[in-house]
Design goal:
With 222 residues, the chain is of the alpha+beta class. It has a domain of 146 residues: Umud Fragment, subunit A. It is elongated, with a radius of gyration of 37 Å. The N and C termini lie far apart (118 Å).
Length: 222
């Protein structure tokens, strides 16, 4: 019986070596898990963050886009036009007569739904402005050229300009569609500090893309 027991212990199969191509039991069952590369993810996150910061900075301090809701600047700007405004322009040079500017709503306008307005600069600081007998604009008693006005705008100049001296640091602004524009004739000259920037480009609709320094095509009417 002792010999039989010994034989049984000898004949009992023990751990077998792994087959070729197989892992030994308890070895994890395969290759170690692959690590996800972290550095490229961090680099892309930084690139996206910098791009967002640049976009916000540009939009806040360099350029802005605005929508035209009224026909007060027709035919230079039509209802529905979209324009690009250069916000740095007047940090580099002074405001010029004839510039189209976007400015914050004057205190005299109580409509809170209008945060910004767009008009053309007509009178500069220190000048005396008034209307002539035929509705022309007089600066220091002399009529000025206004190539941006249409024949209909000249024929219907709207209310007259009260003779006044424009204070230092302020500007007299008017719409190109004189008979349908609520401008400095109503709310007075605007503070230079209220000017957001210089309107330089119309980018929508595509059929009218171009600069906005002069009138662009016939007026569609109000």
């Amino acid at each position: 019986m002792v010999d039989a027991k010994a034989d049984a212990e000898i004949d009992e199969p023990g751990p077998q070596p792994p087959e070729p191509g197989q892992m030994a039991p308890g070895s994890g069952g395969g290759r170690p898990p692959r690590r996800v590369p972290i550095r490229p993810i961090i680099e892309w996150a930084l690139v996206i963050l910098v791009a967002l910061l640049v976009a916000i900075t540009v939009r806040t301090f360099v350029i802005g886009t605005y929508y035209i809701p009224s026909c007060s600047m027709s035919p230079t700007l039509h209802i529905g036009d979209r324009i690009v405004v250069d916000k740095l322009s007047y940090h580099l040079h002074p405001v010029h007569r004839g510039d189209i500017v976007v400015f914050s709503r004057p205190p005299a306008l109580t409509d809170d739904s209008i945060p910004d307005l767009v008009k053309r600069v007509i009178g500069l600081p220190g000048e005396t402005i008034s209307s002539g007998p035929d509705g022309e604009v007089l600066i220091d008693g002399k009529p000025i050229a206004q190539p941006w006005l249409t024949a209909s705008a000249r024929a219907e100049p709207g209310i007259a300009i009260r003779k006044q001296k424009i204070p230092a640091g302020e500007y007299f602004v008017m719409g190109d569609n004189r008979g349908a524009s609520e401008d400095s004739r109503y709310f007075g000259p605007i503070e230079g500090s209220s000017i957001v920037g210089h309107a330089i480009l119309r980018f929508w609709p595509l059929s009218r893309i171009g600069t906005v320094s002069v009138k662009a095509g016939p007026s569609p009417g109000c």
